[in-house]
Specification:
Length: about 375
């Protein structure tokens, strides 16, 4: 048995000091008053002991991308994600032609199996988030308009073991029956890249939508007479709302409003893309030029291309702009994302019986050490 001591333990309902977090055999066993005799102790050095973070919307970074269909890139991204506190993730595909998407799904299926079964050395691949191709061309944003198509459940059916989350515009032709069947098959459906009115969004929720993709972005703006997709998602308790908390995609003045409105339905994401963490300037991203400028990633015409955010920074940003207790913000980056895709039985919180996905951070939530199912996969020392 190993025990982490001398740290503030972040539990789902509060912060605990003067205790020890015990784990063994890849699982969390308990929060104890003191380490048992003979156990190995790990000193948190006065920092935080946090659950591993869960990113359900991330495309890539450092030149790698889930849309490249490369098993090697998925494994390398999993390894690097551990440095930012991520212990589980959904590689997220862009809107591609269907054969290209199937190649991506196949690579993700292999990574999903390998990361679950063996010595993976990084964040576990829980499955795939398919961002499209069943979206509204009028709100395609950075997506490839030539690859957008009508919803077709027969295309998805062979991949429901891999696709855990799928972004769909509920107002497009054929979307509602698709959503009903996808939900029945166990795929969480997210409303996104959508021009839906509030009424159309509610029809989507009734059909089975339980998630909203990068809320506010690629949606009509909130209006007091036509609340639209944003208003529907923010006011319906059936729906989790994603937030890119980089202070660019959404003004941080709205962070607290979203926290108060959504509570346990707020999910922090990165939406990080292939060019993230590359030097400022123009870069090629699958044949398109994307200009990196600090936290901003744009196409030459000014369209936002995605994010360079990391999950640990999302936590720090959200905490700084809301003043909420750290454990509550960490829930938004760990427990609620896991819950939104049905992975919370094993992921997202430091509770007995769950996977020993654990972070040790300093007092500012900079990651010092990351454990994935009890194995140290990153150390800053």
């Amino acid at each position: 048995m190993k025990c982490i001591v001398n740290g503030t333990i972040l539990l789902p309902d509060g912060e605990v000091r003067g205790k020890a977090l015990a784990f063994e055999g890849g699982k969390i066993t308990d929060v104890l008053d003191a380490p048992p005799a003979g156990s190995e102790t790990i000193d948190a050095a006065g920092g935080y002991v946090s659950p591993g973070l869960v990113d359900v919307h991330i495309h890539g970074f450092m030149g790698m991308d889930a849309s490249n269909g490369s098993f090697g890139e998925l494994k390398e991204m999993s390894r690097r994600l551990a440095a930012w506190g991520v212990t589980a993730w959904l590689p997220t595909t862009m809107t591609l032609k269907w054969p290209a998407l199937e190649a991506c799904f196949a690579a993700i299926r292999r990574a999903q199996a390998d990361s679950r079964a063996g010595e993976w050395g990084g964040a576990q691949v829980l499955g795939c988030h398919a961002e499209g191709p069943f979206i509204n061309p009028a709100k395609k944003g950075a997506q490839d308009g030539t690859a957008i198509q009508r919803p077709d459940i027969e295309k998805l059916r062979p991949w429901t073991d891999v696709v855990k989350l799928m972004t769909v515009a509920p107002e497009v032709d054929g979307a509602l029956p698709f959503i009903r069947e996808a939900a029945r098959l166990g795929v969480a459906v997210s409303m996104g890249h959508t021009a839906a009115t509030a009424a159309q969004a509610l029809m989507g929720f009734d059909a089975g939508v339980t998630h909203a993709t990068h809320t506010f972005n690629a949606m009509p703006p909130l209006n007091h007479r036509e609340p639209g997709a944003v208003g529907a998602a923010l006011t319906d308790d059936r729906v989790y709302c994603e937030l890119i908390a980089d202070t660019f995609h959404v003004n941080p003045m709205l962070f607290g409003l979203m926290a108060r409105q959504k509570g346990e339905g707020l999910v922090l994401i990165t939406d990080s893309i292939q060019v993230a963490h590359l030097p400022d300037g123009p870069h090629d991203q699958t044949g398109q030029t994307v200009i990196v400028d600090g936290i901003r990633c744009r196409f030459p015409d000014g369209t936002i291309a995605g994010s360079s955010l990391t999950m640990d920074l999302a936590v720090r940003n959200f905490r700084a702009h809301t003043g909420l207790p750290l454990y509550q913000v960490v829930n938004m980056a760990a427990l609620y994302p896991a819950r939104s895709v049905g992975a919370d039985a094993a992921k997202g919180s430091l509770e007995a019986g769950k996977d020993a996905d654990i972070l040790i951070t300093d007092g500012d939530f900079n990651v010092r050490r990351t454990y994935a199912r009890g194995t140290c996969v990153y150390s800053a020392e």
